């Protein structure tokens, strides 16, 4: 028998055996290898046997090697317009995801070739040229394309090509000009786009025409919406009967979307538990809804809200219902809307004689709550277009152009954009780069959110506010603002308004408004148009309706009270301190400082003092002179401050007090002076124990003073607890009783109780140690508090909250020596005093404060990668210009970013012992990764903005690491971005330098001199060295590894962090 036949027989025996051991499997693999070696080209009969054995193994490998699916995007192009073109028969061609290149090798004797794929092509028909001589054309077609990419990195390499064609005879068109748009830029920019198509010939860049179109390029995503903390107000109920209401929310998708649903999309509605005997319920938890689609489709959907009355015996009757638009829920995090009660009655039809159902709508109350999106796509477009729905009324605002804007950037230009606010909604235009006379020509639609279309309800929406900003990643710069009364729009004559399909005849107001800025008359102006779509009824005249107009000066009632209030303050205090309680906002309107404070409904993850202080610190600190161009003492309204994301100390402190009031703390705004005699604002909290805690927003530190007021008595605390228990539903009480019964029945062994007591003792010991040294994580306001130590404040003159203002009338203004019993009129002079006849309540002059949600983690990671690339690129370009070598080690990036994440927890006082140990381990890893013979030096820096260019300039101006002339220096860089509520971020960047240790250089020089002396001594020692080298070569691998470990151990701790 041949060797191959013997191997086949052994294989058959192994396959017949039911239980094969691991050794048998190894023998089988060896025999297969022998077969592959011994088989020749002539033995073709043996090949199929080996194929049969290996097929299932290949299938299993392919299943394991399957990569996860990449992101899927939707491209939608519509509303295409052509402007300022020189072509007679123009066409527009869009090429999506093409990488075709033209290579001309004719100068080498070759040919002109096209390499790569062309991509998906969409070409419009010939333009229908409009009359008027402006060379404009419109196209009615739309272009839709779905594409799945392998990863987000692939999007950076693809383009959308917009090309202008000249239609010729015989269906042939010639290209006249084009422009390319990167898909990543397209996914992060405005939906409304305007591009210039230029000729690409040698020596000519003539503009052929401008193409304006709406381009949606967004990821198809599973949005998980979480609804909680909903409050109902004045819900409809029958006389003398309070309902047991519960809330049901749902989103009804289109029929086409139902076909493409994912598994998570099956839950399209959620429902709360019912509350007992109330028409002002509060539902803490409602549930989660999953929606599949793009973000623009989600924001155009309606949330259907139904309130039912819980009943045990019959079907739950519906109390009221309403539709709430989801537009703007990502920017605000709060949704609110009016509800209507529907009363159905059967009426006979005179013609047919049959009974018909007639519905009457009456006011049924309102609801308000928090909605959070669990995860968001990596990219997000802005400037969304509202889809006009039948049966609804809209206010259209067309922003035409701005003129003579001031320059805020160092290049003597600005990057302007416009924000329009109306009826609790906010929309913005696209950004036009480097321009002082931008032309927008964009139309923004605002739905009239009213339960019934009447003059009174429409008048409650208020006037139209217009703001112009300069885009800046560190915080947008304010350029100007204006206000348009709603009466002026209603009184306008009826004219043709709108463009394309949305052309209607309505009341049209075309004006040119001056932009107010810095109280001086400027030439800044904006041209806008307003109309209703569809037009309001002719009866709407607003003659009897009084809409609140903007008043620049404080109310006379408040001014008179200030005069009498200051008479109760000692003259010495008035001379030494600052007792001004009036603040002018960004639009020159005067208000009391307590009007800038109002409680904020907080999301669950922000209900912590440490996280609140950290978020406030992440807002950029900037003086009023820099923000408002020389204007001083400006009090920004809270929503305006949140949109700017920068301001002075008064804005930070007022926002902190509003957030603390949302935690139901006894918080106040303090006005006083620092040790240097400068006016300053900070936060104060009165604790129930009688202690006082000052919170400094700039440093995120707390200072505690013990026994500074009477505190709350035990009876008052018990009353508060009893009130909370009364509000709790009976179901929760029944659940608690059942749980107690189960515990009593089941019982617990003595061993379990001993183990629990040991664990509790360990926890108590750890907490005591952490409070003294590490300031462990927790929600108590006593953490990270300096008790009975020197405070950084010299005087305190005023204390204010959202209800009242108090002046310090004690003998001294020193905050550490006074008492804080605000009810004692001998110590504090109240502004609102019922005994003196001033009973007017202080109310905020703005809508409810709305915090932006956090950016998704994937977007934060993308910011961190862009920052590291910018810093590395800046270093390499600078050193390359000076003919110096630069080396950046990539293996440090993950270690640095991980260490910076723990450093962020330490800075925000939200860390545990494990986090502290992990931070120390990351330090040790950095020293381990440093090459042998090098010293390590690293500097972590914290920023409140994500502007990568500004961060790189700051690092290169402040630190001279890039100026190192040593050729052997090695660099490393890493960054970390932590998102917070309000749209702010904490950005960490660490730049590291590794230099050659000078001690080892001296040792190497001494070693060279010693070798020369040894050579002179004789040949005897050289022979010994040769023998030692031969012996070392036998175990060279082991000794080299040990030497490297020893060198790394010697270098531990040598670098400075």
TrEMBL record:
C2 domain sequence ranges: 372-499
Ranges for region Disordered: 1-65, 711-788, 999-1057
InterPro entries per record: C2_dom, C2_domain_sf, CEP76, CEPT76/DRC7_peptidase-like_dom
SMART domains, A to Z: C2 (SM00239)
Biased composition range(s): Basic and acidic residues: 1-19, 56-65, 731-746, 1012-1021
Lineage top rank: taxon: Eukaryota
Classification via Pfam families: C2, CEPT76_peptidase
Biased composition annotated in UniProt, kind: Acidic residues: 34-45, 999-1011
Name of the featured protein: Centrosomal protein of 76 kDa
């Amino acid at each position: 028998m041949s060797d191959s036949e013997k191997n086949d027989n052994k294989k058959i025996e192994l396959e017949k055996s039911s239980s094969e051991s691991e050794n048998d499997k190894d023998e089988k693999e060896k025999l297969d290898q022998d077969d592959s070696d011994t088989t020749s080209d002539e033995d073709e009969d043996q090949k199929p046997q080996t194929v049969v054995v290996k097929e299932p193994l290949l299938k299993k490998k392919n299943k394991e090697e399957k990569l996860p699916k990449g992101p899927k995007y939707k491209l939608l192009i519509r509303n295409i317009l052509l402007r300022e073109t020189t072509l007679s028969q123009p066409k527009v061609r869009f090429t999506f995801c093409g990488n075709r290149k033209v290579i001309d090798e004719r100068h080498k004797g070759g040919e002109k070739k096209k390499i790569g794929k062309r991509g998906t092509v969409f070409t419009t028909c010939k333009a229908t040229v409009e009359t008027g001589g402006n060379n404009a054309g419109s196209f009615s077609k739309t272009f839709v394309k779905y594409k799945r990419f392998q990863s987000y990195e692939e999007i950076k390499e693809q383009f959308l090509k917009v090309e202008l064609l000249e239609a010729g005879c015989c269906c042939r068109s010639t290209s006249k000009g084009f422009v390319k748009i990167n898909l990543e830029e397209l996914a992060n920019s405005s939906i409304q786009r305007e591009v210039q198509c230029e000729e690409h010939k040698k020596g000519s860049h003539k503009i052929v025409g401008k193409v304006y179109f709406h381009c949606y390029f967004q990821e198809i995503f599973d949005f998980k919406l979480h609804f909680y903390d909903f409050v109902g107000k004045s819900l409809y109920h029958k006389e003398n009967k309070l309902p047991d209401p519960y809330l049901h929310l749902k989103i009804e998708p289109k029929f086409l979307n139902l076909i493409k649903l994912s598994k998570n999309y099956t839950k399209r509605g959620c429902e709360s538990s019912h509350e007992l005997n109330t028409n002002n319920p509060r539902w803490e938890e409602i549930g989660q809804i999953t929606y599949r689609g793009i973000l623009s489709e989600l924001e155009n959907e309606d949330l259907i809200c139904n309130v039912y009355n819980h009943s045990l015996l019959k079907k739950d009757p519906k109390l009221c219902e309403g539709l709430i638009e989801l537009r703007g829920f990502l920017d605000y995090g709060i949704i609110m809307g009016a509800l209507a009660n529907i009363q159905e009655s059967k009426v006979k039809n005179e013609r047919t004689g049959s009974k018909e159902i007639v519905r009457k709508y009456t006011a049924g109350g309102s609801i308000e709550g928090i909605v959070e999106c669990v995860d968001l796509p990596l990219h997000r477009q802005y400037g969304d277009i509202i889809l006009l729905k039948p049966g609804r009324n809209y206010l259209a605002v067309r922003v035409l152009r701005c003129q003579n804007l001031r320059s805020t950037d160092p290049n003597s230009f600005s990057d302007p954009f416009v924000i329009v606010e109306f009826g609790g909604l906010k929309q913005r235009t696209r950004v036009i780069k480097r321009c002082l006379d931008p032309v927008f020509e964009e139309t923004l639609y605002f739905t009239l959110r009213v339960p019934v279309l009447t003059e009174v309800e429409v008048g409650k929406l208020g006037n139209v506010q217009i703001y112009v900003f300069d885009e800046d990643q560190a915080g947008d710069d304010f350029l100007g603002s204006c206000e348009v009364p709603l009466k002026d729009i209603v009184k306008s004559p009826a004219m043709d308004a709108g463009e394309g399909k949305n052309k209607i005849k309505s009341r049209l107001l075309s004006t040119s408004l001056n932009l107010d800025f810095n109280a001086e008359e400027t030439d800044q102006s904006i041209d806008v148009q307003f109309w209703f779509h569809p037009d309001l009824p002719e009866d709407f005249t607003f003659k009897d309706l009084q809409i609140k107009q903007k008043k620049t000066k404080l109310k006379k009632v408040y001014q008179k009270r200030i005069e009498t209030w200051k008479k109760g303050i000692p003259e010495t205090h008035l001379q030494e301190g600052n007792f001004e309680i009036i603040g002018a906002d960004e639009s020159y309107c005067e208000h009391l400082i307590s009007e800038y404070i109002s409680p904020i409904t907080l999301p669950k993850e922000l209900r912590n003092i440490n996280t609140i202080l950290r978020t406030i610190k992440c807002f950029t600190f900037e003086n009023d002179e820099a923000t408002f161009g020389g204007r001083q003492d400006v009090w920004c309204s809270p929503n305006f401050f949140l949109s700017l994301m920068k301001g002075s100390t008064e804005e930070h402190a007022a926002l902190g007090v509003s957030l603390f009031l949302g935690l139901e703390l006894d918080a106040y705004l303090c006005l006083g002076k620092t040790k240097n005699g400068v006016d300053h604002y900070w936060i104060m909290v009165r604790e129930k124990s009688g202690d006082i805690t000052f919170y400094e927003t700039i440093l995120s530190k707390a200072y505690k003073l013990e026994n500074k007021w009477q505190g709350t008595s035990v009876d008052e605390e018990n009353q508060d607890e009893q009130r909370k228990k009364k509000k709790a539903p009976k179901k929760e009480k029944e659940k608690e009783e059942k749980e107690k019964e189960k515990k009593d029945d089941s019982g617990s062994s003595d061993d379990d109780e001993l183990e629990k007591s040991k664990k509790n003792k360990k926890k108590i010991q750890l907490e005591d140690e952490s409070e003294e040294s590490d300031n462990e994580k927790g929600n108590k306001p006593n953490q990270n508090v300096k008790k009975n130590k020197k405070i950084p404040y010299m005087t305190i003159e005023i204390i204010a909250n959202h209800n009242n203002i108090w002046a310090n009338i004690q003998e001294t203004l020193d905050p550490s020596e006074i008492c804080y019993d605000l009810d004692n009129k001998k110590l504090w002079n109240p502004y609102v005093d019922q005994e003196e006849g001033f009973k007017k309540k202080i109310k905020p002059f703005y809508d409810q404060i709305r915090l932006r949600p956090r950016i998704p983690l994937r977007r934060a990671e993308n910011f961190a990668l862009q920052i590291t690339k910018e810093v590395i690129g800046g270093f390499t370009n600078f050193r390359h210009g000076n003919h110096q070598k630069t080396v950046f080690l990539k293996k440090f990036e993950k270690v640095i970013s991980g260490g910076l994440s723990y450093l962020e927890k330490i800075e925000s006082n939200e860390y545990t012992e494990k986090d502290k140990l992990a931070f120390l381990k990351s330090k040790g890893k950095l020293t381990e990764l440093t090459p042998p013979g090098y010293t390590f030096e690293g500097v972590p820096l914290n920023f409140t903005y994500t502007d990568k260019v500004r961060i790189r300039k700051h690092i290169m101006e402040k630190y001279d690491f890039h100026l190192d002339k040593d050729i052997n220096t090695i660099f490393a860089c890493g960054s970390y971005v932590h998102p917070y509520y309000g749209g702010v971020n904490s950005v960490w960047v660490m730049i590291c330098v590794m230099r050659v240790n000078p001690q080892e250089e001296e040792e190497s020089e001494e070693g060279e001199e010693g070798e020369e002396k040894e050579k002179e001594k004789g040949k005897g020692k050289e022979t010994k060295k040769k023998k030692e080298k031969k012996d070392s070569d036998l175990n060279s691998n082991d000794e080299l590894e040990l030497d490297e470990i020893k060198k790394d151990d010697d270098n531990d701790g040598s670098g400075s962090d």
